[in-house]
Amino acid sequence: MDVVLVPGAWLDGSCWDAVVPRLESAGHRASPLTLPGMERAAEDRAQVRLADQVAAVVAAIDAADGAALLVGHSIGSGIAHQALDARPDRVSRIVHVGGFPSPDGAALLPGLAAVDGEVAMPDWAEVGEEANVRDFDRERLARFYAEAIPQPEHVCTDPVRLTDDRRLEVPATMVCPEYSAVDLRSWVEAGEVPEVAALHHVDYVDIGGGHWPQLTQPDRLARVLIEVASRGLD
After folding, report:
1. Total domains present in the chain
2. Which of 4, 48, 110, 229 has minimal CB crowding within 10 Å?
3. Which DSSP letter does residue 26 get?
């Protein structure tokens, strides 16, 4: 099966480097994406829009041999969900890792300071979200911050556009890293993640750790993706 891997903010396709060989050894073809504006840190990304990144995911879905398994991480979940909305008949299942699909009209990541059209990664301890990086050691965390690629401002703030309710019929798996499945279910029940509440077929998988399991526990994440992919082959 073709597995399209959509990174979250501040990452390029190399964030999936430790996951890809595990998927391929299980017989799948992995397509880790580097989205527009994320090619390198010294990139002019001020004019990159959310629609540009969604279009790149749609192109990868179109290039797949049959229906793809679509995987989004963090705000990449929202980007992947919009691509699913554009191609609901070309995706067998979707996996959201540490992120949720956003509803129509919402922004994916509002509220972060932008400079010259781009948003730098915050210090997660300083903003009170230490759980995001709890499974990095000090050396690896320093390297993670140093290698972070600024995110295009418009990708964070442009409104999500969803038009095809068939997206809600595609089975979804919510992979829960720094929060638990119990936490996420409670947010769904409270109406805080309405697009997840609207999904017709959704399951939840606890993986533990921090927000970036493709970097800190690729073996475990790959096992989850391989198991989910097997359902799409049934």
Report:
1. 1
2. 110
3. T
**Residue 69 in contact with residue 173, Cβ under 8 Å?**
no
What CATH number does the domain containing 216 carry? 3.40.50.1820
Average pLDDT for the chain: 96
Residue 69 belongs to domain spanning? 2-232
Do 19 and 48 contact (CB within 8 A), yes or no? no
**Helix or strand (DSSP H, E) at 6:** strand 2-6
| DSSP states along 64-115 | SSSSEEEEEETHHHHHHHHHHHH-TTSEEEEEEES--PPPTT-BSSTT---B
Portion of the chain with pLDDT greater than 90, in percent = 96
Q: How far apart are CA 151 and CA 162, in angstroms?
A: 22
pTM: 0.96
Which pLDDT band holds residue 233 (cuts at 50, 70, 90)? low
Burial status of residue 34 (CB atoms within 10 A of its CB: 0-12, 13-18, 19 or more): middle
- pLDDT single digits (tens) 134-168: 999 999 999 999 999 999 999 999 999 999 999 99
**Are 121 and 9 contacting, i.e. CB atoms less than 8 angstroms apart?**
yes
- Looking at residue 43, what is its pLDDT? 84
